[in-house]
Amino acid sequence: MDYKTILVDNDAAGTAAARIDVAAGLANAHQAHLVGLTQTGILHFIRDAGTSGVDFGGMAPLFEQLRQDAGERAVRFDQRAAQAGVASFEHRIGDEDAGVALAAEAMYADLVIVSQRDPADTGAPVDAAVPEYVAMNAPCPVLVLPCAGAAAPAFERIVVAWNASPEAARAVRQALPFLVRAQQVDIAAIAHEGHGGPREPGGGAQIARFLARHGVKADVRQPSTAASVGERLLALAAECGSGLLVMGCYGHSRFRELLLGGVSRTVLQDMSLPVLMAH
């Protein structure tokens, strides 16, 4: 069981090089085709200018520079993929916002790789809500890498956040290529004191049996917390020495505004390990 097409965000942020290296390593491990998606963001400027009455003609030099920068990033992507020994790869360049383009291209991918937002990165894309938007709109799982993460994360130990919701179930199924390779899998069925526990009686036992039929041995953990479930989930992942957190992404998108549930929002803000999300 493998991811056969991996799509990676090739933006101008400082995390791009490490992100591409991770994507290349996964492409090699899964014998996958790797696609580097580079966007100029020109359509973002056009939409904004159109609402404020700006003359598009005066923006031609900016557009030319954006396309030149995107072309240079695409060349660097090809170089890194080739140096990593990826057998099959390509780059694609477009003019959309990164989040919109990644969600659309995810129709034809098994896995999308993006990075956590880094507020201190001045090279971050104009469309800074990329992880949130892609996680909410992509039909395949989204691997979010921490902005300060290691270049080559290990997925030998994995924590699965479980609350018996459809989103959590989709995340588990879409993470199977990672789960079957892991040495240790822990199912975190966290109960929030005063709000009840997981919806599934016996919290986590049934999903553990489901995974066992795929050859995945999973231990069920049922901690409780009176504080933030997201914070407790990240703390448990640290306690387990996990290299990957798998979870459903909760919330909904309304036009271009993103409304995430509290757990998803907390994890994306405070994560220090890669997180695989599915909605």
The strand order across the widest sheet is 3-2-1-4-5-14-11-6-7-9
Helix content: 25-40%
CATH class of the largest domain: Alpha Beta
The CATH superfamily name of the largest domain is HUPs
Low-confidence stretches: 254-258
CATH topology of the largest domain: Rossmann fold
Topology as a string of helices (H) and strands (E): EHEHHEHEHEEHHEEHEEHEEEHE
Number of domains: 2
- Number of H- or I-type helical stretches: 10
Given helix and strand content, the structural type is: alpha/beta
Averaging pLDDT over every residue, what do you get? 88
Tell me the overall shape: globular
Proportion in β-strands: 15-25%
Main beta-sheet strand count, sense and barrel state: 10 strands, mixed
Structural account:
The protein has 279 residues and is α/β, with parallel strands linked by helices. The chain folds into 2 domains: 5-145, HUPs (Rossmann fold, 3-Layer(aba) Sandwich); 157-278, Rossmann fold (3-Layer(aba) Sandwich). The protein is built from 10 helices and 14 strands. It has helices at 16-30, 42-52, 60-83, 98-105, 130-137, 166-174, 176-179, 205-212, 229-239, 262-270, and strands at residues 5-9, 33-39, 89-94, 111-115, 142-145, 157-161, 184-188, 191-192, 218-221, 224-225, 244-248, 251-254, 257-260, 275-278. The chain has a 10-stranded mixed beta sheet with strand order 3-2-1-4-5-14-11-6-7-9, sandwiched between helices. Strands 8-10 form a two-stranded parallel ribbon. Strand 4, helix 5 and strand 5 form a beta-alpha-beta unit. Helix 4 runs parallel beside helix 5 (130-137). It is globular, with a radius of gyration of 19 Å. Residues 254-258 have low confidence and may be disordered.
